Amino acid sequence: MVWGSWGTGVDEDQVRQAGFDPTEPRLAEALRLATEIIGFPRHLSQHVGGFVLTRGLLEEMVPIGNAAMADRTFIEWDKDDIDALGILKVDILALGMLTCIRRAFDLIDRHYGQRYDLATVPREDPAVYDMLCRADSIGVFQVESRAQMNMLPRLKPSCFYDLVIEVAIVRPGPIQGDMVHPYLRRRDGKEPIDYPRPAPEHGDVKELEYVLSRTKGVPLFQEQAMRIAQVAALFSPEEVNELRYAMATFRRRGTIESLEQRMVTRMIARGYDPIFAQRCFNQIKGFGDYGFPESHAASFARLVYVSSWLKCHFPAVFAAALLNSQPMGFYAPAQLVRDARQHGVEVRPADVNDSGWDCTLEPGTYGFALRLACGCLTGSEQQRPTGF
What we know:
Layout: H1 12-17, H2 25-36, E1 50-53, E2 64-66, E3 73-75, H3 79-84, E4 88-91, H4 96-112, H5 126-133, H6 146-155, H7 160-169, H8 172-176, H9 180-187, H10 209-212, H11 222-231, H12 237-246, H13 260-269, H14 274-289, H15 294-313, H16 315-324, H17 333-342, E5 347-348, E6 360-363, E7 368-371
Helix pairs in contact: 4-15, 4-16, 5-15, 7-15, 11-12, 11-14, 13-14, 15-16, 16-17
């Protein structure tokens, strides 16, 4: 009963709602034992793109098992054990949007005679940012969720670094640390940009300005949280590494909290405002659930911009590439087709004579029309391909 968003324990009301008597001795003992294992892994899982690198043969270093899928193997050691032994593990992240973008570039090359790649897409296009400011982002990488669409008109991105902020700001770290609204107010000029400072006798009064100047005095990234601990709380390199390890995604609860008193107490002792110190650590606790490093946000922001540019200037191409890359994203194919129509794309139904395996482009009344493929339809839509 206790997992995910349910919390960290079972109170008496929950026990009674489940039909049990919390005062029954055996049940009370079971509940006591259960609380001791809250936060432990509840099942084994395999990383789809995890690679372990060793100096010698892997089979001589770790036990290897056969996975359920043919020709797939896994090592039997946990990732934390690998880290404790100093063995290098690399996780390869696969993104469906990369497939979509590649397909879109191929379609542009085939039908428009223009060849693009991630490095040659025109940069800082005002039309792209205007589209995003309207929250016109269905299908766009990372910013198509309702939360991101709500943030776009408030943040009003106008350059690439704004997209880096956009990707990172709708995350538990900045939200739990109460950093979102101060950043927006400062960006809109409704609140002065202020850099919290230590007491003069305790160090450089500009020490946090060096850390927070790019984000208007508000910490938004994991690197900034660790840097604050280093310069404002005087964490040693070993303590900073301990903090980094504690902030790792999906860590067992309780690891980060053990550092709270150390960091907050030191910041207050050096003259920082207690509220600011606690907010900084609340943000770090949010990163313990899920947060973004700046480098990660910048990499994602690049795909946000490129997918937005495709949607803005080649809506038919973008729609075809999205449909041909399913399943991915927040929206069903019917919603993607509806959005394409709203952007002026002529959509033609699946046809046994004209449709291919994938959605294609063909000459239309104005420019190119999107021809749907039977492969992009599911369920009842296969019975009525014109019913989008």
